[in-house]
Amino acid sequence: MSKVLGISAFYHDSAAALVIDGKIIAAVQEERFTREKHTADFPINSIKYCLEEAGLAVDELDAIVFYDKPLLKFERLLETYYAFSPKGLFSFVKAIPVWLKEKMFLKKQIFDGLKEVGPYTKKQVRLLFQEHHLSHAASAFFASPFEKAAILTIDGVGEWSTASIGIGEGNNISFLKEMHFPHSVGLLYSAFTYFLGFKVNSGEYKLMGLAPYGVSGSEETEGFKKTIKSTLVDIKEDGSIWLDQSYFNYATGLKMAKDTKWEKLFGFPVRRDESKLEQHHCNLALAIQEVTEEIVLKLAKHAKEVTNTTNLCMAGGVALNCVANGKLIRSDIFENIYIQPAAGDAGGALGAALGAYHIYFEKDRAFTKMDIMEGAYLGPNFSEKEISTMSKKAKAVYTKHESFDTLVKEVASKIADGQVVGWFQDRMEFGPRALGNRSILADARDPKMQKKLNLQIKYREGFRPFAPSVLQEDKNEFFDLNIDSPYMLMVAPVNKSRRKPLPKGYETGTLWERLYSERSDVQSITHLDFSARIQTVHKNTNYKYWALINAFKKQTGYGLLVNTSFNVRGEPIVCTPYDAYRCFMSTEMDYLVINDFVYFKKDQPDWEKPEKWRVKFKQD
Asked: Would the N or C end of the chain have less CB density within 10 A of its end CB?
C-alpha cells in the first residue's frame, strides 16, 4: 500500500490531497478552513483533514510531495532580473529577501508546518518536489479515464514553463514542447484582468463573464483585437506566443501592465476598482477573450498534430476558461476532452500526489469508464450530531425530515415559489466550483432571479452571470451540448427553441438594459450571448442533488436550477454547518437545508438583523 500526500502552498490556493493505492481519499483547499480566499498559507488544516479521513499520522505516509520546484523558480527570478537589468531594481530589492527567507528555505518551512499537523520523526519523512507543469499534467491525465492522451497545460507560470504539450500513456507522462516565461497566455489574460479593474489571480472569471457584454464584430471590438495581435502578442501557428515586454511590467515590476502605454494603446485609462463599466471595457474584455480562444485552439490543434491521439487532458488556470473550453469541444479537434475540475494551483496538490504515486513509485493505473475524481466531492462532511450541536449553539430553529423524498419535494416546491435555498449536503467539493453540495439554488425561469442573487444574496457586481445545473438526461432539451459537463467547465448555447425575440434597439442599449431584457424561458442562466456555463448532474454521482432537481422537474416540467456557490463576495465556499448558517443569516436567502435539517429564515432569532452575522471579507 502506497500512501502519498500532495501539497500546494506559498503562492495562492494552498491545498492538500491524499492518494492511497491510486485512489483519491481526500482533497481540500486551505481557504475553506481559514476563511481567507485563495490563501497561500501552508495548508495545516487541509493536511490534518486528509490524514484524519484515512486515520493516518505524518510518519505513516510513504511520501509528501510539493507541487513545484522552488530552486528552479529562484533561478528564473535571478535570470529574469539579470536579463531586464537595470530595470526593476526596486522590485528586485524587495523580492530577493522574501525569496531567500520563504522560498529558498522551503524544506524547513514544510517541516515546520508539519509539526503543526502532528508529531513525526523527520528521518521517516520522504519529501519530494515535482515540477509545476508535471503536477498540472498529472492532475488531469492520471485522474482521467484515458489510457493514452495528449496533455495540454496552460497557466501563468510555473518554474519556467507557462504552457506545455505532453503525452500520457499508462503510468507515464512525457513532455514534448514547452513555452517559457515571460511569454504566457495566463499572464496576458491577467494583464487585461488588471487593466479592466479586477483583481489578478481571482478576477479572471469576472473578465470572462464581462466579455459577452462586448459587441462581437463591432468596429471597436475588432479594432481592439487587431491592436492586441499587432502590438502586444505575436501568435504563431502552433499556438506559441511572443509578448512585447515593453508593454508589460510583471517580469520585474510590481504590477501587470504599464498603465500609460496601455492607456495610449486602447484610448482609455486603467479602470479602478468598482468604477463604472462602460461599453469600451466590455468590448476590450470580448477582444482578449476571443484572442485567448484563438491561442487555445491553436495549441490544441498542435497538440493533436504532435501526439496523434484522439483524447486530450487539460489543466492549469487557463483550463478554467470554460468559454474557450466550449469552443474547443465544438471544434472537434479531439474526440474526447477531460479537464481537471481543480485545474488551478489547488489541483497541483492532487497532481503532485498522483504524479509521485504513478511515476516515482511506478504504480500502474486501474482504468474505469469514469474518472477517479468521485464527482470532486472529496472534502469534509458532517454528522447529524455535529449539525445538531451547531444548531443549539447558534440558537437556530429547524425542522428535521425523516423522509428524503418528502424533503426534496418540499425544497423543490419552495424553489418553484421563488424562494432561494442554501443547499448543504455530504462531502464538500474540491476546486473552484460548487457542484450541488455547497450551493445556493434558485429557479432559472424567474427573470428577476439573476439580479436578486447578485445584489441581495451574493452582494457582488450586478453583471455577473449564473450557471445552471441540469439533469444529465435533460441537457439537450435546454442546451446545444453533445457531451456531459459534470464539473461546470463547459459553456454552450441555450437552444434556439428556448430563446425569446430581442427588443428593438437591443444591440445599442446600455449594459444594464441588455442584461435585463428577457432572452429565454430560463432567463436567469442565459447570458447576453445566449450561452450558459453548464453542470450536468448525474444520478450515479450525486443522487441527492439529482433527486432534488428531478423533484423540481416533476413539479414544473423544468429539469434544471440556478446553481451558485454557497458564499458571499470575497468569501470562500462554506465548509462547515456553522459557515453555512452564518452565511444564510447574513443574506436574504429564504431557506437553508443542511443534510435533512431545514431552517426557515423567519423562524430564526434576530432574522431581521443580518448585520449581526456579517463578516467583512476582502473584495475579490
From this structure: N
Q: Is it the case that residue 49 has pLDDT exceeding 60? A: yes
* Structural domains of the chain in order of their starting residue, each with its CATH number: 3-143+341-372 (3.30.420.40), 185-336 (3.30.420.40), 384-612 (3.90.870.20)
Q: Exposure of 218 by Cβ count < 10 A (0-12 exposed, 13-18 middle, 19+ buried)?
A: middle
Place of cell 489578478: 200
Q: Decide if 143 contacts 371 (C-beta within 8 A).
A: yes
| Number of alpha carbons in the 13 Å side-chain half-sphere of residue 20 | 11
561-605 residue pLDDT tens: 999 999 999 999 999 999 999 999 999 999 999 999 999 999 999
Type and span of the H or E element at 535: strand 531-537
Q: Which residues pair with 179 in a beta bridge?
A: 163
Q: How far is CA 63 from the centre of its chain?
A: 27
For the segment 365-422, what is each residue's pLDDT rounded down to a tens digit? 988 889 999 999 999 999 999 999 999 999 999 999 999 999 999 999 999 999 999 9
> Residue 581 to residues 82, 151, 452, 585: CA-CA distances in angstroms?
52, 41, 20, 6
| Closest C-alpha to 556, from 418, 435, 449, 436 | 418
∠ CA 412-414-418, nearest 5°, is: 110
List Cβ neighbours of 606 (8 Å cut-off, separation of 6 or more).
Answer: 612
pLDDT at 181 (0 to 100): 87
d(CA 500, CA 503): 9
Q: Where are the beta strands (DSSP E) in 309-435?
A: 311-315, 336-339, 399-400, 421-424
**What is the Cα 564 distance to its own chain's centre?**
13
pLDDT above 80 (res 437): yes
Task: Please give the backbone phi and psi of residue 230, each rounded to the nearest 5 degrees, phi first.
Answer: -95, -20
d(CA 436, CA 422): 10
